[in-house]
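Deliverable D2.4 — example input (structure tokens):
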């Protein structure tokens, strides 16, 4: 049924001809002339950093996600760190995070002296499982962090119910999901604090960059101080007062985002919805292409959400294959397809094993998923021919390794 001419040719990893000469990366930014113009304009302006473009970008982003406040910071990790500070995470406080995420989600808890508690994910979507969260709640729990894995929002209705029942703060690490929505509500407005990354591989970029959105003006104010050494006034406010005096009630960091970066962010934000559309288009054609390949199972998508498709994640049905995920990974790389694995469960890392006594068995669903997941190339600049190469390569490799 899947027999094409490609299926019968030798794999590149075995010395055959690769599907592509040049490797297709799994992700990448889109930078157009108007983005370059926007940055050039910022460079010609009076402010390279902490100027009017920072405020404008924050306002535009808050409008986009429908929150009162947006606070721009240096990167997505700084956004998580600032959020942990706003919530006052400290010694003895537990924060529940999914283990299938980028390590920064858990690391940010550690930065503030808290304890990350790893929860498992749902077997179909690989999103934070509210039932596993409930099992982890103790008297010391202070917050829950949802991670919108691959760009699909978590079950925020269930997470909100848990948070309310136990008086916890709900956070959304939305770094994958910029431009997505849940039950008609935009990602960025789903939790009490929502964090974004504008790294080039994410759905929009400022080079490095991050944002926190919230409806709580006190938290927003604290995070604006936190990103600027903990100083309670801005240089504009001091200039207006005609005074040099400022106070640092609590040490902060330099986590500022520059005006050049915010200019790029403004320009990118306008185009984000179109890019998410393109991501969804490519994902939809992958869905069709793999529908009859029983060794390939894309993660499940919920009807009530709009996935922003930062990643297209498949699970390999290893029972139907003669090799493991590593061989499939190597074979696809050899064909010129830049596949990746998102993620090594965070509780596997030596830092957490040694300092938080984690290890195998803690999150069985995530651990099983980790053995068979692969992220296929997905970004707006990909052409239909690129997508066809991905489909062709996956089918070629899978049919060769069929049990
Ligand atoms: C990218 C990412 C981060 C960190 O963002 P940076 O801008 O790279 O610091 C945090 N969490 C998740 C889920 C991410 O994907």
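Example output (designed residues):
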């Amino acid at each position: 049924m899947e027999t094409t001419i490609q299926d019968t040719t030798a794999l590149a990893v075995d010395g055959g001809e690769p599907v592509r000469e040049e490797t297709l990366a799994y992700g990448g930014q889109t930078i157009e002339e108007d983005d370059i113009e926007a940055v050039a304009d910022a460079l010609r302006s009076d402010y390279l950093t902490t100027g009017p473009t920072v405020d404008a970008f924050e306002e535009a982003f808050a409008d986009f996600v429908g929150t009162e406040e947006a606070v721009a910071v240096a990167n997505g990790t700084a956004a998580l760190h600032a959020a942990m500070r706003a919530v006052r995470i400290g010694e003895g406080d537990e924060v529940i995070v999914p283990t299938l995420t980028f390590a920064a989600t858990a690391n940010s808890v550690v930065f503030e002296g808290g304890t990350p508690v790893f929860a498992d994910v749902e077997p179909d979507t690989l999103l934070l499982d509210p039932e596993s969260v409930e099992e982890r709640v103790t008297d010391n729990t202070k917050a829950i962090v949802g991670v919108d894995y691959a760009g699909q929002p978590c079950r925020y209705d269930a997470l909100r119910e848990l948070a309310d029942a136990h008086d916890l703060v709900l956070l959304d690490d939305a770094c994958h999901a910029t431009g997505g929505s849940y039950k008609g509500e935009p990602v960025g407005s789903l939790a009490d604090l929502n964090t974004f990354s504008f790294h080039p591989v994410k759905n929009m970029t400022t080079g490095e960059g991050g944002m926190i959105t919230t409806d709580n003006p006190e938290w927003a104010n604290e995070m604006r101080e936190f990103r600027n050494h903990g100083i309670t006034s801005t240089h504009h406010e001091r200039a207006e007062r005609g005074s040099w005096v400022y106070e640092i009630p609590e040490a902060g960091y330099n986590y500022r985002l520059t005006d050049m970066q915010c200019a790029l962010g403004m320009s990118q934000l306008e185009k984000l919805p179109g890019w998410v559309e393109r991501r969804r288009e490519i994902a939809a054609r992958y869905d069709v292409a793999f529908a009859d390949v029983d060794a390939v199972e894309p993660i499940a998508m919920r009807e009530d959400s709009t996935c922003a498709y930062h990643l297209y994640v498949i699970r390999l049905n290893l029972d139907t294959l003669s090799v493991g995920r590593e061989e499939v990974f190597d074979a696809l790389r050899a064909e010129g397809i830049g596949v990746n694995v998102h993620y090594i469960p965070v509780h596997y890392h030596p830092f957490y094993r040694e300092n938080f006594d984690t290890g195998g068995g803690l999150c069985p669903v995530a651990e099983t998923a980790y053995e068979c997941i692969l992220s296929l190339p997905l970004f707006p600049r990909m052409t239909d021919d690129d997508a066809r190469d991905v489909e062709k390569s996956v089918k070629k490799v899978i049919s060769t390794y069929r049990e």
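Confidence is low (pLDDT under 50) at residues 1-7.
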